[in-house]
Amino acid sequence: MPEYNMPFRAVVFDLDGTLADSLEGIASAMNTVLSEHGLPHHPTESYRLMVGEGVETLIQKAIPPSAKDKTHVILNEYRGVYARKMQETQAFAGIEDMLSTLTALQIHMSVLSNKRDDFTVAMVNALFRRWHFVGIRGERVGVPRKPHPGAALELAAQMGVLPSQCAFVGD
């Protein structure tokens, strides 16, 4: 393996849209729930502009104003449908080679997502079980979501590096 001069010792990856191509599963799950409630669904590509800030924000963007009273019901149904459709998610091309290279270079790796913590852990374990991630974190009660730096700083400490020695890859 070629020798690299890395300016960092650890990486914190975002999950959706960075390691995993999850847009299709998210769109399919949300459109399924919207259809069940007689609400209009959206083209998959439209969801690219709705994701990234957590599922509550996704739902607020996906449902029409006239259905805001159904937000809680849609949220619960979406989580159930998405848990089944999550299995359709795949790693982006080249990600596995990159993770193997970082592992060979002894770069510590973690994942931080605004996806619910249990979904984040399940997806990382399903897609990337061949690689060791020091920490896998999703949205948790009492911890501000990205872009707040708290969880990323927590992961840097868990990996035993200074924040300046840690790259953040994703949004």
Q: Structural class of the helix and strand makeup?
A: alpha/beta
Strand order of the largest sheet: 5-4-1-6
Counted beta strands: 6
Q: Distance N terminus to C terminus?
A: 30 Å
Summed over residues and divided by their number, the pLDDT gives a mean of 94
The largest pleated sheet is described as: 4 strands, parallel
The number of distinct helices, counting runs of at least 4 residues, comes to: 6
Encode the helix/strand succession as letters. Answer: EEHHHEHEHEHE
Radius of gyration using CA atoms only: 17 Å
Task: Bin the helical content.
Answer: 25-40%
Low-confidence stretches: none
Explain how this protein is built.
The chain has 171 residues and is of the alpha/beta class. It contains six helices and six strands. The chain has helices at residues 23-36, 55-62, 71-85, 95-104, 117-127, 150-159, and strands at 10-13, 20-21, 90-91, 108-116, 135-139, 166-169. The strands form two sheets. A four-stranded parallel beta sheet has the order 5-4-1-6, sandwiched between helices. β4, α5 and β5 form a beta-alpha-beta unit. The protein is elongated. It starts with 9 loop residues before the first strand and ends with a strand.
